Every structure is written in structure tokens, then in C-alpha cells.
Description:
Bound molecules: pyridoxal-5'-phosphate, iron/sulfur cluster
CATH superfamily of the largest domain: Aldolase class I
Largest sheet: 9 strands, mixed
CATH topology of the largest domain: TIM Barrel
Number of domains: 2
Amino acid sequence: MRILTDQPPREPDVRGAAAVPWQQAFKRAIRHGAALLNYVGLEAADVGFCDEAELDFPVFAPLEWLARVRPGDPHDPLLKQVLPTGDETVRHPGFGFDPLGEQAATVVPGLLHKYAGRALIVVTSACAVHCRYCFRRHFAYETLAPPAETWRAAVDAIASDAQIREVILSGGDPLTLTDASLERLCAALQRVPHVRRLRIHSRLPIVIPQRVDRHLLSWLRNTRLRPIVVVHANHPAEIDAAVAAALRRLLDAGITVLNQAVLLRGINDNVETLHWLCECLADLGVLPYYLHQLDRVAGAAHFEVPVDRGRELIAELRRRLSGYAVPRYVQEQAGQPYKQPLA
Ligand SMILES: *Cc1c(COP(=O)(O)O)cnc(C)c1O
Ligand code: SF4
């Protein structure tokens, strides 16, 4: 049996990034490749930086995230998630623009109903970070993401289908919206008697942990709906002390907290990294829910890990971890009734 060295969560290296209100963290985020390289002390050539990739999907990286990047390390696993590179401009057969068939699953603008019992509202196109591998990087938000006023249509469609027991808020990242808007949407949803659970898919507790503030916790605590927050961390270095504290605040408020990760080449495709990610999450009381096989979106082919390798990694995780701490390795396939288990 292998024992991991006991690495505590990284302390935030704030480098001038003392906690500010989350809205301000958005405003001061880095939005240009050149500024990003400068911040982490690297040259474009060291990391294969590419302007053309940046034009296709702009850089967006808050200082709270970048404080966890090791300066001067071209292989840093957090940097790689946000830095545009030349690999993104290479076209690969099989990597398309709507890999999940989301256009087809759209019921009314912004409402996706693919799976029984739950419906997903794309509440915003904004995110707290731009992940280069994102399957929604080419999402037609202009036609699908409704402005707040037209949520009405989504809520009406949910109200007219008594099979829907769980509503998922997604995006983009729903927690980029103000608590006042979210509370209004939640109030409308909880007036629908058959809706029992509210699930929020958000990277914000990981990216800008101060987003988990008393306003957010207050409306989540007060809803009749069972709240579930699914966060998204791919690497244990994403979980510093401030993130751990934010996750604890969610759990202390009685919220179920799950994590989803994407299997990414050169970032977390080794057993030590995945093992330590799951250990950190389990220590905090956050269950590793999914490990996603990369969605085949144009521009992300260089992040793909072969499924056979993913299966080997899961087999090794099963040997090392408590059963509940092993994520389900899945792949979303257009037209299938659930995310397909791969291991
Ligand atoms: C992933 C997804 C869900 C949630 O699926 P679970 O397996 O319940 O996590 C629901 N709706 C859509 C459109 C999705 O893409
Ligand atoms: S936070 Fe989620 S939706 Fe936003 S860019 Fe990253 S993976 Fe995509």
C-alpha cells in the first residue's frame, strides 16, 4: 500500500490579492494573455501562448485563482487550465461545436431537458474563469441564455411537467449572478409544488471562494428546496485554505456539496494527482461525484486522455480510496438517457 505524504491545503499566496468582495474580484480579474504571462513570470514561447486562441475564447482569470499558480512554472496545472495555446487552433476530426447536442435538448430558450426527473436552466453565459477545455466555449448563448426577465418561460415549462423534481442552475456559472436575482428565481421555482431540489453547478466556490458569503448562504438556507451545490475542481492545488473554508461554509449550512472534475491531459491524468484530489475533498466532506471524459469540443483535443487510460486510473483509485471517494468516470453522449459510465 502506498502512503501519500500529508500535504496540507496550500495556504493562499495572495500576492496583493487580499480578499475583496467577490464582485470586485471579477473586476480586477486578468483578461489578456500578455497580462497573464506577465503575472506568472513566463514568456509566450515558454508556454506556447497563442493570440489567435485568445481571440476565439478570451482569457479570464481572477487573481484569487492565479495566486495558486506557481510563478515561472510553464507546467503549472492551474495555469494550463486558463492559458490560450497554439494547440487550440489545430482542428481535429470528431471535435465539433455542439458536442453534446444541446441545441436539440432545448425546450424553451435557456432550458435543457435531456434527462428524466431533472431540467437544467442556463441562467447566464458568464463564468468566474475561462477554462480552455470548456465544452460550452462555442455555446450559442445569444440564442439560449435568457435574460432574467425571460426565466419566466423556463419556470412555466418546468411547472407544466410534473416529472421534473430537480432543477439545475448552470451556465456559464449561475453564481456570477447577484443573490437578489438568484433568490427571485429560487422563489419562482419553489412555488412549483413538484420541484423538490435545487442543484447549482458552480466553479465559483473554487475560483473566488469569498463568493460563498452570508447573502448566498442566507437564501440557500431559507429555501424549501433541498440545496445541492456541485463545484468543479480538477487538481488538489485548486483547494487552498480559503477554498476549504468556503466549502466548509456550504456544508455547515446543511448543503450537499459534490465535486465534478474533467480528466485533462497534463493536468490531472496521473493517479497521484487524482488520489490527492479525492483525499482532500473527502477530508472536507465533499463527495467526488463525477470524473468526466473530455467533451469533444473544437479547440480542446490536446486535453483529451484516452478512455483506456482513464479506466486504469479509476481502477487504481479504487485500490487506494474509500468506495465513496472514487468518482464515477462518465461521458456525456448526445441522445443517451444518462451520462454513460466508462468504468
Ligand atoms: C449533466 C446534465 C444533467 C445532470 O445529470 P446528472 O447525471 O444528474 O448529474 C442534467 N441535464 C443536463 C442537460 C446535463 O447536461
Ligand atoms: S467554469 Fe465551467 S462553464 Fe465556465 S468556462 Fe469553466 S468549465 Fe466552462
